Each structure stands twice: as structure tokens, then as C-alpha cells.
Amino acid sequence: KNEVEQSPQNLTAQEGEFITINCSYSVGISALHWLQQHPGGGIVSLFMLSSGKKKHGRLIATINIQEKHSSLHITASHPRDSAVYICAVTIRGGSRLTFGEGTQLTVNP
Amino acid sequence: NAGVTQTPKFQVLKTGQSMTLQCAQDMNHEYMSWYRQDPGMGLRLIHYSVGAGITDQGEVPNGYNVSRSTTEDFPLRLLSAAPSQTSVYFCASSYSWRGTTDTQYFGPGTRLTVL
Q1: Around B111, how many Cα atoms within 13 Å sit in the side-chain half-sphere?
Q2: A30–B101 C-beta distance less than 8 A
Q3: Do A31 and B104 count as a contact with CB atoms less than 8 A apart?
């Protein structure tokens, strides 16, 4: 079993819909990252969390340390949000990232 | 700032050939790392460095060498390419030696095919 599990693997939405992508992990962590990989392949960091909630524009990331769970929400989704969203964690005491397999999001106009 | 740059963008090798993937950053970041991305799998760490002169192995280091002679550059060497090394390679950096508890900056990737 992977240490980082994302759901769903694939998600199709209509423009304007509220989207949630989930990330669960099975180990103690010191940080959790949400990354976006564009269709062209580039990877961009969206958020880094160790507790609570962060918001940037239409994106919101939350983390529940006790439940070992994080969510990435996209409000008022747009076709330009179509990308792969990747969750990654830093295991406590470690110095490397462990990645989920990613969630492919497609937003149709 | 150019951020994190990688060259080449694409490369085709024959089995047994050697090559170096280049990675450079101009943000004075201490932590640099190399990942490979394969279909159906998450990114996997190959090697990382917490500063000039210091490198360590990641999850999948076999067949790859690295060195870090300057803060800016972190090349990845394939000594004798194998078809199993066909992948997309990403270099990443972050500000402090703590590395993965800082925001990560990724290069654009190198798509490598080994025939």
C-alpha cells in the first residue's frame, strides 16, 4: 500500500463546479504539498501545509493532522484548471518527498 | 530569475550510452533533487543534495550518479543507459537545506528515451 493515496484518480467536471481532491497518508509527516502538473508537463507548487487551511485565489487546501487527510478544493472551476494535481508529504524526521500518483482533472466548458 | 532550468528537453539514447542531464538554479537554493516520473507511478526521488559538496541517495539511485560542486548546478549522470531508464526526469530545488519542508521549484523536465 502506498504511503500517500489520492482520490479520485480521474475527475471530470463542468465549468463552474466546486471540485474536491483528497489525499490520505499513513505516516507521521512534517509537511504536505499540493502540486499542479500542466498538460505540457511543468510542475508548479500550489501549497505547502503543516496545519489548518490555506487559500490562494479559487484554490483552498486543508489538512487534518489527526485524521492524516488533506483536501484540495477548487471553487468556480474553469477549463484552465485542467491538470494533474499531485499530493506529496515529507515524512517526519525525513528529508525527502513521497508522492501520490496524482489526480487527473478535466474541466469541460 | 530563470528559476530552475534543465537541458536537454528531449534525448534519445542507445542502450549502453552515457549522458549527463543538466540542472541549474539561480535562486541560491541549498536543496536540490532529481526525480523520475513514470506512467502509473508517482514521482520518485533519485538523488538529492543539501548543499555544495553534499549528496545522498533517494529511492531509486541505481544507474545514476550526481555531484554538487557549486550551489547552482546539480547534474545527473547516466553511466550506461538502459531501457528501464526511459522516463521523464525533473530537477527541483528549495531554499533551505531542510529541503522538503520548503516550497519546491521544479524544472521543465527532460524526456529521455533509451532504445
Answers
A1: 5
A2: yes
A3: no
Which residues on chain A are in Cβ contact (under 8 Å) with B101? 30-31, 48, 50, 90
pLDDT over 70 (residue B97)? no
Q: Over the stretch B11-44, which tens digit does the pLDDT of each residue have?
A: 999 999 999 999 999 999 999 999 999 988 889 9
Residue B18, burial from CB neighbour count under 10 angstroms (0-12, 13-18, 19+) = exposed
Considering only alpha carbons, which residue of chain A is nearest residue B5?
A42
Q: In chain A, what are the helix, strand and coil shares in percent, each to the nearest 5?
A: 5, 60, 35
Task: Tell me which chain B residues have a C-beta less than 8 angstroms from the C-beta of A2.
Answer: 42
The per-residue pLDDT for B40 is: 80
